[in-house]
Amino acid sequence: MTILYGMIFIIVLGTIYVLGYYFNHKTPTPKGCEGLTSACEGCHVTSCDNNPATRYKEIKNG
After folding, report:
1. CA 31 – CA 26 distance, rounded (Å)
2. What SS3 class is residue 1?
3. Is the pTM of this model over 0.70?
4. Distance (Å, rounded) from C-alpha 16 to C-alpha 30?
């Protein structure tokens, strides 16, 4: 019975994650935040799509 509760708990957490992901991408961009990618000068988060290092890789590979 404990395994069943564990599986239900994991399914509930997965469902919450998927719904949050879906509704986050469905939400429109707030006014004033449309062109932030061009204004980004970069930070130390290299996994961010706005980081100039990522743009350099795209240009280099393109």
Report:
1. 15
2. coil
3. no
4. 24
Q: How many CB atoms lie within 10 A of CB 23?
A: 9
Query: Could you give the CA distance from residue 35 to residue 43 in angstroms, rounded to a whole number?
Result: 17
Shortest CA distance to 39 belongs to which of 24, 26, 50, 23? 50
Reported as a single tens digit per residue, the pLDDT across 1-40 is: 899 999 999 999 999 999 999 999 898 888 877 766 666 6
Please spell the DSSP secondary structure of 21-59, one letter per residue.
Answer: HHHHHHSPPPTT-TTHHHH----S-TTSTTSHHHHHHHH
Which tokens hold the place of 40? 């980004």
Question: Which residue do the tokens 């069943």 mark?
Answer: 4
Length of the chain: 62
- At 60, the amino acid letter reads K
